[in-house]
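So, does this match?
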Amino acid sequence: MKTAFTLLQDPRQNKGTAFSKEERDKYGLNGLLPNVIENLDTQVLRVLGQVDEFEKPINKYIYLMGLLENNETLFFKTVMSNPAKYLPLVYTPTVGEACETFGHIMRSPRGIYISIKEKHRIREILRNWYDKDVRFAVVTDGERILGLGDLGVCGMGIPIGKLCLYTTCAGVPPEYTLPITLDVGTNNKKFLNDPLYPGLRQKRVGGEEYDDFVLEFVNAIKDVFPKICIQWEDFAGAEAVEIMGKYRDKICSFNDDIQGTAAVATGGLLAACYYSGKALTDQRFLFLGAGAAATGIANLLALKMQMNGASKEEAYDRFYMFDVNGLLVKSRKDILDFQEPFVHDMEPNNNFADAILKIKPTAIIGVSTVGGAFNEQVVSNMARLNENPIIFPYSNPTSHAECTAEQAITWTKGKCIFASGSPFAPVTYKGKTYTPGQGNNVYIFPAMGLAIFATEATRVTDKMFITASEALASQVSRSDFEKGLIYPPINSILEVSVNIAIRIAEEIFDSGLAGIEKPTNLEQYIRSKMYQPVYK
């Protein structure tokens, strides 16, 4: 039964000053609100003014998360009104600081926290959630949050933020989403000694006990939410690869750090190839970092090359990896299984700038989380070898970027094709202004979510991510590219996501993975499923 109290306390139903006279009379709201009746647009104006009163991004984040807990419609209307302004506040880069301080800034718990100590109660815990038809869960164990490392349950800021983007950027209705943190402890000494740390105060559990816990979780969530799709998020490298491989054919799931990052990188590179006139199969890639993100990008690019006619051997021959111990070469004894396809029979090399001169890559991609690793010598070597070197410092948050946009543009004399994982301001070099593109996964995973939601897909495949990257690249115009962009402007993200989702949905139906019959007008059907931030 709706009462004044439940309406004002429920973020999904609360309209604040927008409750009509009839609603105020019906639910006993008279006197509990100012007399004026405002519309949603007027309320947004107030929010915009209040947000701008805060100077620090983290304080803007706290305010906006408070708004989400108070009035969901107003929150999404605000963020969707100006994605370029608000996405960096509700997600990267601000979410990094939010996670680091999560135990101190948390106001109202959001999502579900599942402790390994409650392994045998997971179904009961999941059934405590108030929405009974959850379709998407972003799940983390907090071990590798962005480039910040082990943040334990404080990594919950990532699932919360990602699911906000599902709705903001692709119109996935928020009532179908659920952020989840698997609490297995943390090895972060600072957090273990912090009285405000909200998670288990123990060292991180691993090995068989950890594997059994994840298996129990997967089995439980399938039972409780039969149409669920899991987005695995910010698991440590080897575990991320293992979990993705183990469950991708058992439940609808994907790993955004691996597959989403790979798709957005591939989309940017396809756009760069198209406008630079150089085929993808003619590129040579050198990665700084050889973990799950690097190998994920390389594997998807190799698949795309094979679809374009290259043999598997020809495709993988175009990729080189460089980690903390240097190039991945056959003489090394520390190569992991998932790195094997990228090992070359050549001399060891521990100097990245020197490796560039020997390998002669056309593109360097940074997924190392080592801020400043693309120094002037590295970037200058790329410019020396290539007319338009591709420089992708993909690590985030901003402090972990391998170089800045200004550095890359200046050191290459304005000739580089640039994209980064974190946002950078426009750069003016010799009278020309360049707008740096951000290779943000937000171009991929919300659209993937919308396509899965609309089609009730049963699995997520690599071909779906290839399709997403192709659809993304096709929306970059020549005028965008001439400004320095290899991704569409972020303020057009909703329409970009819809176009990508339509293409993915076509692939889902063609692959026989849809849970529904294909509608006559697919675009119209998908748009009809999207959330609109309006009061009901």
